[in-house]
Amino acid sequence: xxxxxxxxxxxxxxxxxxxxxxxASPNTIAAYRDTFVLLLNFIxxxxxxxxxxxxxxxxxKTTITEFLDWIxxxxxxxxxxxxxxxAAIHSFYRYLQLExxxxxxxxxKILSIRFKKIKKENINYLTIDGMKLLLQQPDTSSFKGxxxxxxxxxxxxxxxRVQEIIDLSPSMLQLNKPATIRIIGKGNKVRLVxxxxxxxxxxxxxxxxxxxxxxxxxxxxxxxxxxxxxxTRAGIxxxxxxYAEKARAENGTIIPDRVSCHSLRHSKAMHLLQAGxxxxxxxxxxxxxxxxxTEIYARADSKQKREALEKAYVNVNPDEKPIWxxxxxxxxxxxxx
Length: 337
Hints:
The chain is mostly helical. It has helices spanning about 5-20, 25-45, 60-75, 80-100, 105-110, 130-135, 145-160, 160-165, 195-210, 235-250, 260-275, 280-285, 290-315, 325, 330-335; strands at about 175, 180-185, 190-195. The longest helix has 26 residues, at about 290-315.
């Protein structure tokens, strides 16, 4: 069967360019691959073009925008997911415009497709009391309960992303003092995160029970399912939701309506900030590239403090508004001060 130019370039992009030239992580490669699988399915189903007959000229800017609309309408994807798919497509066409100068114009038209704005939501995190309640939910008399406690407590204590937790193996733990965990983050960047004694005690028991502290198990998944396979994102999310619901039933006032895997990471960051830990150290623990990303926690905490102060003022003197609210001209008020 004769190969098409699209199959040639997409294969080269995935198997050579991303790995050898960009140094992309396996997770990035998998995400890009999934994007093009979706695109191919869309073209086959809606355009009635078979994959083996698909050429570059049949994929236009209109095709891509229709695909992006399709994943939002038919697959109910958010703006964030849409932007992730578009980022993968942009990456391919940036590569392609250097490989096929005769196709440069269409590449640039596709690269002109804009990302959608994403509404900034409030950081969803648990208070310290909320985290304590959540970690009290697993039944430690059962194997799964002990595994889930080790999982949830490590997710919180390390502030790791869910994929980083999935990719952990026993060899990445150093449980002798000073205890640390080696986390491989975005772009294959490695960071060492210190662990507290309470966390290492839980992990030591978990490793011993599952014989993960023996040399032959060094590369095994740290957390696994009944088939001894790595837990998936969906699997970990199910565990988090399960115990969040139980905790909420026990005390709904300290458990947010929405609790996700990322909420545990947010919770760790906020608790570190509230304890007076420098933003630079929080950035390094979370694996942020820029301190500006970490500053969202400082801004969120400032908002919480402001709201608390406003509530306190109303409670003290509910019938009086502050003077700066009564006088709309702030400059005049300052001059009289």
